Known about the structure:
mainly alpha, 3 domains, two-stranded antiparallel ribbon, 15 helices, 2 strands, elongated
Amino acid sequence: MIRHRLLTLPRLGLAVGCFATVTMVTTIVANPKAPTPPLNGGATYIGEAVCIACHQVQNNHFAHTVHANAFRLNPKNEKEKVSCESCHGPGSNHIKDPMSPGNRVSLVGFTKEWGTPVALQTQMCLQCHDGGQRMFWQGSTHATHDLSCSDCHNPMAKVSATGLLKKASINETCYTCHQQQRAEFAKRSHMPVNDGKMSCVDCHNPHGSTSKTLLKADSVNETCYSCHAEKRGPFLWEHAPVRDNCLSCHNAHGSNHDKLLTVARPFLCQQCHGNAQGHQAPLFNSSGILGGGGAANIRIMSHSCQNCHSQIHGSNHPAGARFQR
Length: 325
């Protein structure tokens, strides 16, 4: 009898523990609490209908966005159910005196004029949009330059086809700050960004990455190889500048020289190949081209050095030590 009781008591305790656990879980699910964002000042949630009563224009724009559909039609949690206040915070203090500076800033605003710290603006967005492509946002060049999500995105209106951007396209949004790159894309030889065949985010992750220039791959070369796989190798005969960095010879965005080259051929090649032996010793100049005043020189015509050294990115031919045909 005693032995039976000893075996039964642990089972009874386990049953009681399971019952308590189920009761506690049921209580939590049955009584969910809306999130409490920073700087709420003791405010309470007033509901979307109260917000719309004053902000009808904003509602008309917001109604067409992805956020409106998610919050109103298919909220995943209590945070999304409160709609406007899930991003701006509880609004009871705001409606007491909307024009009062103190009550005005009790809400989280997503403009620089509103006065909400950039870190807090970003924190509100990352409540839902954390991880994934935004995994490296903290410490990225955009974050360290004090940019907020709303500098590139407009969550209150559907201005762009995707991404709720502040401009009509990804490229136009990036050009807001990156005017130098916009000018480079307009040069004679350029990446087909303005042609609509690619966008800035095909190479860069604006939300942060492990590289200095927000590249999506670990290095410049790995980024280039995602499209130019034939240049990856490995080759029997490697060309050192190619293996080191594609930008040794090319400008990534655009150039007025052929093939996005930083310098026209043969002068690009002569930056390294200018020794006193062989045919690369003379410094070629414009007198060697047709009509240049001197005898035409095959070494500066057409593709110049690549007239003979055509496999300049690397060769697998047993006789290709000099990257010839």
